[in-house]
Structures are given as C-alpha cells and as structure tokens.
C-alpha cells in the first residue's frame, strides 16, 4: 500500500483509505471503496475545493498593480517553463479557446520537452482506443463518439486537440481518469438525484468524489512518467483538480513536482478566491497597457505565495 496522501482536503479517514494501492482493484471494488467512504458516519464534512488551500489573500488594488506590471504577451515556452516534468493546466471545460490555442501550438509544447498530454477527459480504460487512433487505424469520429458518450463537454473541440496531437511532431495522449462507467455507477448508488452536486450531503460527497478521481489521475501520471521515452507531461484537467491541495499535492506525494498554470475564463462555474482575483488583475493589466489588448496574456506568479505558477487569459472582456 502506498503512503496516505498528505492533502488538506483529505481528512484522516479519507487520506488513510484512498491510497494508490486500491487503484489496481476491479471496477466494482473501486466503486465500493468510494461508496464506503461517502457513507461512513464518522467522515466529517469536507471543505469544498473551490476554497483554495493557498493562504494568499492580497489587497485587490495591490494585485491589480502587480498584474499590470508583470503580465506579458503569452509565450508558451515561458508559460510551460523548462521544468519540472509535469505541467498541470487547469481549464474551464465549456471554454473552447484553450483547446484551440493548445491545438495550434503543440509544436511549441514539443519544443518545451513535452512528449505527452495526459487528459482528464478519458477514463484509463480507453487507452487502447486512443492508441488505435494514434496509429492511424481509426479516424477522429471514434474519438468524438467516445467523448460524446463518456465526457459530454464540447466533444468536437477535445477531438480537435487529440487529432492535433498525432500530427508531426507527434505528442502522445494518455487517458488518466477513473472510467466513465465506474463514475456513473458510484454516482447512481450514492446520489439517486443524479450527481454529487444534488446529494443531500453534497459538499462531503462531491469532495470525496473528486479526491477519488484525483488519486486515480495521479497514479496514472506516475505510471506514465516511469515509461521509457516519456519526457515532460502536460496534464489538462478542470481547474478544481489543479487546486494546490488536489493534484499538485498528490503528485508531490508520489515524488513529482509540478508546474501549475490556470486558464482564466470569464464564466468559470467553479471559481475560487485566487482565480477570481487574478481574473480581475488580468482585466486591469489589459486596461492599463495597450499592447496587451486583444492578445493572449500570461501572468507569472510566485508559487510559494499563491499556490500557482501563473495564469493565462486568452480573451479580453470583463467577467
């Protein structure tokens, strides 16, 4: 059994039982583990992850001044950095712009040493189908059908990203989330209303559900990094999973530092205080500096203070 994962959102009862050793179990036992955790009467309510683990609470005026002084036109080499091996990109799933930007700039990813994209959008049981697609024995209609059935958020846009990855220079695509069927089974049994958000104890159940998936994603990324020929890995996940207490903490427990950059979106359905404030800062930076208007912008931030390495804004506009 791997050591329990030291993360603020995983309270003792959760951290001690969501170890990675359980990830090799069957789908049924994996679902049962989630249900057991969610139903235990002694598991306290867990703070929703949209409340970030960061202790960074700047005066908004100071932050706006910082953004105006430090924001710059997006350069993917700078945004991705040269280390460490894992770059976590937090996104808002309905937003098309970041997937389009990534699809158009994957050659820059390769230049930065990236050999693989690890995607939350695919359960790890789908890796064989993605391999067939990468080998050219299946067309993009296969990926679009899979995403429409198991993901749902803008399948055509994510298909475009996966399709771009198999063009030269190629970037591998890794499926890393809990399989769709496992997630659906757990949700049906625990939440007859249809989703964790509708459960009577939704904060607790949603947090355990997300932590369960974070464990699986971290495990799969760890396994990917151990393979020969794998360089740097870009992990594309929803912004909730990029919270310092979520995947960055789990990967660190497995021995992997990560660079964490979040795409700022004006209609993020799950904002936290940090991303909300930096969204305001990005708007201020564009308002004060003409050269930033109408272009993608990157704002580097001190990880030790904020919990994040930077924020990317691809569009102008107020929230």
Describe the structure.
This protein is α/β, with parallel strands linked by helices. It has a domain at 54-176 and 219-313: Rossmann fold (3-Layer(aba) Sandwich), CATH 3.40.50.11550. The protein has 14 helices and eight strands. The protein has helices spanning 12-15, 27-39, 60-70, 76-80, 97-104, 106-111, 127-135, 140-150, 155-165, 180-190, 202-225, 247-253, 273-288, 303-306, and strands at 72-73, 86-91, 114-123, 172-177, 232-238, 258-264, 297-300, 310-313. The protein has an eight-stranded mixed β-sheet, with helices on both faces. The longest helix has 24 residues, at 202-225. The protein is globular.
Q: What is the number of E strands?
A: 8
CATH architecture label name of the domain at 54-176 and 219-313: 3-Layer(aba) Sandwich
Low-confidence stretches: 1-26, 41-53
Q: Give average pLDDT, whole number.
A: 81
Provide the gyration radius in Å: 19 Å
- Assign an overall shape: globular
Strand fraction equals 5-15%
How many helical stretches? 14
User: What is the element string, with H for helices and E for strands?
Assistant: HHHEHEHHEHHHEHHEHEHEHE
Portion of residues in helices?
Answer: 40-55%
Q: How many strands, which pairing sense, and closed or not: the largest β-sheet?
A: 8 strands, mixed
Main-sheet strand order equals 1-7-8-6-2-5-3-4
* CATH level 1 name of the domain at 54-176 and 219-313: Alpha Beta
First-to-last CA distance: 45 Å
Q: What is CATH's topology name of the domain at 54-176 and 219-313?
A: Rossmann fold
In terms of structural class, how would the helical and strand content be classed? alpha/beta
């Amino acid at each position: 059994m791997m050591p329990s994962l030291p993360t603020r959102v995983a309270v003792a009862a959760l951290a001690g039982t969501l170890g990675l050793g359980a990830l090799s179990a069957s789908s049924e036992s994996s679902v049962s583990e989630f249900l057991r955790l969610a139903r235990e009467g002694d598991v306290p309510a867990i703070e929703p992850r949209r409340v970030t683990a960061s202790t960074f609470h700047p005066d908004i005026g100071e932050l706006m001044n910082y953004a105006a002084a430090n924001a710059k036109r997006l350069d993917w080499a700078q945004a991705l950095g040269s280390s460490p091996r894992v770059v976590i990109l937090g996104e808002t799933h309905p937003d098309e712009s970041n997937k389009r930007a990534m699809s158009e700039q994957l050659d820059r990813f390769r230049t930065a040493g990236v050999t693989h994209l690890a995607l939350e959008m695919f359960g790890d049981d789908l890796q064989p189908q993605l391999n067939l697609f990468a080998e050219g024995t299946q067309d993009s209609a296969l990926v679009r059908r899979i995403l429409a059935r198991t993901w749902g958020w803008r399948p055509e846009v994510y298909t475009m990203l996966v399709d771009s990855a198999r063009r030269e220079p190629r970037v591998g695509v890794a499926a890393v989330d809990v399989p769709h069927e496992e997630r659906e089974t757990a949700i049906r049994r625990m939440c007859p209303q249809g989703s964790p958000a509708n459960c009577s104890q939704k904060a607790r159940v949603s947090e355990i559900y997300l932590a369960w998936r974070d464990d699986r994603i971290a495990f799969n990324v760890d396994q990917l990094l151990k393979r020969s020929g794998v360089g740097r890995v870009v992990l594309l996940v929803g912004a909730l999973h990029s919270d310092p207490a979520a995947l960055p903490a789990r990967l660190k427990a497995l021995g992997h530092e990560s660079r964490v950059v979040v795409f700022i979106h004006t209609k993020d359905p799950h904002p936290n205080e940090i991303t909300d404030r930096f969204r305001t800062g990005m708007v201020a930076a564009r308002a004060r500096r003409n050269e930033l208007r109408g272009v993608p912008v990157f704002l580097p931030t001190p990880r030790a203070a904020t919990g994040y390495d930077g924020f990317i804004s691809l569009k102008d506009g107020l929230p």
